[in-house]
Every structure is written in structure tokens, then in C-alpha cells.
Specification:
This protein is of the alpha/beta class. Helix content is 40%, strand content 21%. It contains 9 helices and 14 strands. A 5-stranded mixed sheet has the order 4-3-5-14-6. Strand 9 and strand 10 form a beta hairpin. Helix 1 crosses helix 2, helix 1 crosses helix 3 and helix 1 crosses helix 4. Keywords: DNA-binding, Transcription, Transcription regulation. InterPro entries: LysR-type_TF_proteobact-type, LysR_HTH_N, LysR_subst-bd, WH-like_DNA-bd_sf, WH_DNA-bd_sf. This is DNA-binding transcriptional regulator, LysR family. Belongs to the LysR transcriptional regulatory family.
Length: 297
């Protein structure tokens, strides 16, 4: 029996979270997957999975073993592709995590064309504004907002992205337009709740070297920019958001910009990955893809 066959089956089962789904990927029967995993557990003398009728979850030993095996399999797949002269060394699964609005407005529109150009990739894209645990949640790479919390991670900074301050024409007709950041205290501001801290995002402005900060107040807040955008379009207040979020509404006239004499830059964005995983050809390809998208901001 090939010892690597059981390890490969174990990795696919851990990724699938279910023996039946793993069997479909491997094109074998679920019972064959179960027997392969049981054989590996007997050989190692540890339990790798907690089993239930509908799903499997890794034990503590399973988590450790999975992380090492998955990295090893990635390295083997890359080596085989290189020695085989493959024109597509990037085949395989990639688990990517990006902020919600960045994923919806920047990554999603570009992803289809990228996948057509690189067939063989299997992408799992998660959208969240919180800082994920790259190791525990088994992400290959991520785009993170703000300071990267883990010094063991490699972070490649994206160019600063512009924010715009906007409101619906009907709101400005009823309440007037602010001419200075300090005027925002007289307006209903739509507040964004930051996922990592639970605090409201501070609005920032600069002009001629002078910086201004505004702590927004208002009756409406959300941890999803899309909700705040809909409220702004409905005339419920003033919003400050990334330009790529508000661009379609501005082009359609549903929103207009205010405080145009002031610049505003959002929290830094970084492409983040574990150093060991950058050795993978498909990881390098995905990092370059995200960096190129960030250069358009």
C-alpha cells in the first residue's frame, strides 16, 4: 500500500469536511475514504477526526498533522509540475480571505477572467472584515485591513485607497452640504462598525498638509458597507466609504460627493500569507493577482 495514498485521502477528507464529498473529489467510494483514514489512524496511533453522521472535524492531533501534510502535498505537487514541464504549475485549491467590500467590488468582477486564464485552480473565497487566524482557519492568503496582528505572517502592502464622502441629493436639499469637516457634527453620519474592535470608524481628512478627524454621530450604524450605502442612497445621511464602493452610485447620480477639497485615505490594506506557503506556485500567482488589483485602487 502506498503510504502517501492514505495521507492524500486524509487531506482531501479534512478539506471537504465529509467523507462523501471527499470521495467525489477522489473518485472512490465513501467507504474507501473511511477505511483509508482508519488505516492511517491505526498506523499513527492517534485519532485524526471526530466523526458524526453528517460531518467530520479534525481533532487536535489531526489539526497538527493536517497542516504539515497539506504543506508537504503542495510542495510535492509543485515539484512534480516543474519536473514534468507543466505549463500550469498552479493547479489545486486556494483558500483566500478578503474584506467584504474589497471582495464584492474589486475581486469578484476580476475573478472570472482570471480563472479563465488559469484553469485548474479551485478557489474558496471568504469575505469578512475581521482579522482571521490564517493557520487555524487554513487560509492560504488574505487581504487584511489595518495593522497585521501576527508578526509571523508576511505582509505585502497595497497602495493607499481613497475614500469619498457622499450623500444623496435629496438629503443635501433638506439639510445642506457641509463645507468643512467640522460641519459634519450638524449632520446624520452613517457609521461603520469595525469588525475587529466593534468601534466606529473615524473619518479622516487632509488638505494642504493639515489633517482633520471626525468621530461620526448619527442614528444608523452597520458592520456592512453595503447596508450603509443603501441608507445613503435613501437619503438617510452622509457616508464616507472607499471610492470603489460608491463609484456606481456616483456615476448614476444617486449620490454626490461633498467636501471635495479634502483628501481621505483608508486604513492600509495588505496581502498576507505564511512564509512557507509562498513557495507554492499557485500562491505566488494569487498574491500577484491581488497586488495587481490593489494597484488599481
Amino acid at each position: 500500500m502506498d503510504p502517501f495514498s492514505d495521507i492524500s485521502t486524509f487531506v482531501r477528507a479534512a478539506e471537504a469536511g465529509n467523507f462523501t464529498r471527499a470521495a467525489r473529489v477522489l473518485r472512490i467510494t465513501p467507504s474507501a475514504v473511511s477505511k483509508s483514514v482508519a488505516r492511517l489512524e491505526a498506523e499513527l496511533g492517534v485519532k485524526l477526526f471526530h466523526r458524526s453522521p453528517r460531518q467530520i472535524t479534525l481533532t487536535g492531533d489531526g489539526e497538527v498533522f493536517f497542516d504539515v501534510c497539506r504543506q508537504g502535498m503542495t510542495a510535492i505537487e509543485d515539484a512534480r509540475s516543474l519536473l514534468g514541464g507543466s505549463a500550469q504549475p498552479w493547479r489545486g485549491k486556494l483558500r483566500i480571505c478578503v474584506p467584504v467590500s474589497f471582495g464584492q467590488c474589486v475581486v469578484a468582477p476580476a475573478l472570472s477572467e482570471w480563472l479563465v486564464a488559469h484553469p485548474g485552480l479551485d478557489i474558496e473565497l471568504t469575505l469578512t472584515d475581521r482579522h482571521v487566524d490564517m493557520t487555524a482557519e487554513r487560509f492560504d492568503l488574505a487581504v487584511m485591513l489595518g495593522e497585521v496582528p501576527d508578526s509571523r505572517l508576511v505582509a505585502r502592502a497595497l497602495p493607499p485607497h481613497r475614500f469619498q464622502t457622499v450623500a444623496a441629493p435629496v438629503y443635501l436639499q433638506q439639510h445642506g452640504a457641509p463645507s468643512f469637516p467640522g460641519d459634519l457634527g450638524e449632520h446624520a453620519c452613517l457609521r461603520y462598525i469595525m469588525a475587529n474592535s466593534g468601534q466606529f470608524r473615524t473619518w479622516t481628512f487632509s488638505r494642504s498638509g493639515e489633517a482633520y478627524r471626525h468621530f461620526p454621530i448619527g442614528p444608523l450604524a452597520s458592520d456592512h458597507v453595503a447596508v450603509l450605502l443603501a441608507l445613503a442612497e435613501g437619503g438617510q445621511g452622509i457616508l464616507q466609504a472607499p471610492h470603489y464602493v460608491v463609484a456606481p452610485a456616483l456615476a448614476a447620480g444617486r449620490l454626490v460627493t461633498v467636501l471635495n477639497e479634502f483628501d481621505s485615505v483608508g486604513a492600509p490594506l495588505s496581502v498576507v500569507y505564511e512564509k512557507a506557503r509562498h513557495a507554492s506556485a499557485r500562491n505566488r500567482l494569487a498574491v500577484d493577482f491581488l497586488l495587481e488589483l490593489g494597484s488599481r485602487l
